[in-house]
From TrEMBL:
Family: Belongs to the glycosyltransferase GT106 family.
Keywords per UniProt: Carbohydrate metabolism, Fucose metabolism, Glycosyltransferase, Membrane, Transferase, Transmembrane, Transmembrane helix
Record-given protein name: O-fucosyltransferase family protein
Organism this protein belongs to: Phaseolus coccineus
A Gene Ontology biological process term: fucose metabolic process
Length: 584
């Protein structure tokens, strides 16, 4: 109706102009036949002009005109971003080699049981630090530290004083009874520090250095534990060495992937969010988007916002007294700048994901707000978050607590078909490791060192050239089993000691190599992780991206009796440098 109205208005104006011109001609020319012919021609010309010129788009035609214009601008330029992801010869939604591997974290025959080794008068307490995922690493390492010193672990104390100001205690985030029961063969765990010799004993407080080795605990903590009987370790994050004996690494995995289970209320809401995403489409992507003002300020990166950006982020950066003066160009060259929302969208499109994909975004406050998010929403209009797929009433019990809200995002990201991150923070690392352990589900980490240089040059190349280079640079960063060398990187990201090769290529993913406590089984959320995630066979030769295909393998052969260490790596030495950011 709007278009018809505009056409009618233009036609009326054309007729009036034509009549005026005809009137003038009649008063000056004696030949009426010629006048009539000219008038008719002019009227026809104006009418044709009115039809051919498009009417202006009414303001309500699009919900977000800014988003649409951004996408149109990309498509009209030489660097024209297509709406579709193109045709791929491989499945974007699964790992090509996952069926060959499964999680395995059972203890070895020589691993001493808790009832044999635990000393009755040694109690270890820890105070975690940071957000949900940083605290998770502290809880995991606390169990191992207690095992090393033959001590009973008191249920960890969570951080209430940091930036997040979350008052949640352990039992409000995790199932405490499950935690204690599951670990009973490894470490004795109690909910509270008991009275010793009939009276309360205040624990002796100390702090160990970061990456403290087992020998470090033996020298620094154990003597005080023997003398004081109860020791409390403060700011307990990354206070245990990354590299440990295999049995201790497997204990880390048992804690991380099996003993730590969110409460029923968190699990139930998380599953509901996952179900609603799966109802929208056959598959969905979850994006953990770190682009908060404090994140950008800490990184020292510059995103083209001029003096305003430099002033705003500069003020936030003053919070950290020990930070060096920022050098944005150097930080970007080293791949330490988180990708912008637009850059994440372009990377995904280049990898083959079209605009029909449903995208779940887990994020905090985005610097620049909707203006910053607009390009990503233009590329992926099916844009969702927990706030858009759940009601305010459903989220009400979680909203006041940042860790519980983060736990909901954790569950959705963990259960997504493809997980994507624009950073290499704690949540990204822990989820990358978890998804490796439970079937190598595709996990896309940006090769920021290469991609940042490419994004700076994108306007001087065609889309086809850009997409081809993105696919090349991302080889080794999409979650395949053989991307990282065993033992490289953070153990929580690359739990190689807990991933075993199956006996044949027909094997499915087992239950994480775990024997559950008597009369105990994991809930549906955990057991669903154990299904076979992919159907494709392993390719013996290194896979390469080609311009004509999303992922091409030169030939396929079934792999039998091959050790994990003998499988070819998909990444070069310089690609193995992982970006690190602070906190969650």
């Amino acid at each position: 109706m709007e278009r018809k109205k505009h056409l009618t208005t233009r036609t009326d104006k054309s007729r009036i102009i034509g009549l005026l011109i005809a009137s003038v001609l009649r008063s000056r020319l004696p030949h009426r036949t010629l006048i009539s012919a000219i008038s008719a021609s002019l009227l026809l010309l104006f009418a044709l002009f009115s039809v051919l010129v498009p009417s202006p788009t009414p303001p309500h035609t699009h919900n977000n005109a800014q988003v649409r214009s951004l996408l149109d601008a990309h498509q009209d330029s030489v660097f024209g971003v297509p709406a579709s992801g193109g045709s791929c010869n491989h499945d974007l939604w699964s790992s090509t080699q996952s069926r060959l591997f499964s999680g395995c974290s059972n203890s070895g025959d020589n691993f001493a049981k808790a009832n044999v080794k635990t000393h009755p008068d040694r109690y270890l307490l820890i105070a975690t630090s940071g957000g949900l995922n940083q605290q998770r690493t502290g809880i995991i390492d606390a169990v191992v530290a207690a095992y090393l010193m033959n001590a009973t672990l008191v249920v960890p104390e969570l951080d209430h004083a940091s930036f997040w100001k979350d008052t949640s205690n352990f039992s409000e985030l995790f199932d405490t009874d499950w935690f204690i029961t599951f670990l009973r063969n490894d470490v004795s765990v109690v909910k509270y520090l008991p009275n010793l010799d009939g009276k309360f004993v205040a624990p002796y407080t100390l702090r160990v250095p970061r990456k403290c080795t087992p020998k470090c605990y033996e020298d620094r903590v154990l003597p005080m534990l023997v003398r004081k009987r109860a020791v409390r370790l403060t700011k307990f994050d990354y206070r245990l060495a990354n590299t440990l004996d295999e049995d201790l690494q497997k204990l880390r995995c048992r804690v991380n992937y099996h003993a730590l289970k969110f409460t029923d209320s968190i699990q139930g809401m998380g599953r509901l969010l996952v179900e609603r995403m799966k109802m929208k489409n056959k598959h969905f992507i979850a994006l953990h988007l770190r682009f908060e003002p404090d994140m950008l300020a800490f990184s020292g990166c510059y995103y083209g916002g001029g003096e305003k950006e430099q002033k705003e982020l500069g003020e936030i950066r003053k919070r950290w007294k020990n930070l060096h003066a920022s050098n944005p160009d150097k930080v970007r060259r080293h791949g330490r700048c988180p990708l912008t929302p637009e850059e994440v969208g372009l990377m995904l499109r280049a990898l083959g994901f079209g605009s029909d994909i449903d995208l779940y975004v887990a994020s905090g406050e985005i610097y620049g707000g909707e203006k910053t998010l607009a390009p990503l929403k233009a590329l992926f209009p099916n844009f969702h978050s927990k706030e858009t797929i759940a009601t305010k009433e459903e989220l009400a019990q979680f909203v006041p607590f940042s860790s519980r809200m983060a736990a909901l995002d954790f569950i959705v990201c963990d259960d997504s078909d493809v997980f994507v991150t624009n950073n290499n923070g704690n949540m990204a690392k822990i989820l990358a490791g978890r998804r490796r352990y439970f079937g190598h589900k595709p996990t896309i980490r940006p090769n920021a060192k290469k991609l940042n240089q490419l994004f700076m040059k994108k306007n001087s190349m065609t889309w086809e050239e850009f997409a081809s280079r993105v696919r090349t640079f991302q080889v080794g960063f999409i979650g395949e089993p053989n991307e990282l060398r065993p033992g490289s990187g953070e153990f929580h990201e690359n739990p190689s000691s807990c991933i075993c090769q199956n006996s044949s290529s027909e094997s499915g993913v087992e239950t994480g190599g775990i024997s559950y406590p008597q009369n105990q089984t994991p809930d549906n959320y955990e057991s669903n992780k154990t299904k076979n995630w992919a159907e494709e066979q392993f390719t013996e030769e290194e896979v390469e991206w080609s311009e004509g295909e999303c992922l091409h393998s030169k030939k396929q052969s079934r792999l039998k009796e091959t050790k994990l260490y003998s499988i070819p790596l998909l990444m070069s030495a310089d690609q193995a440098e992982l970006q690190e950011f602070f906190s969650d």
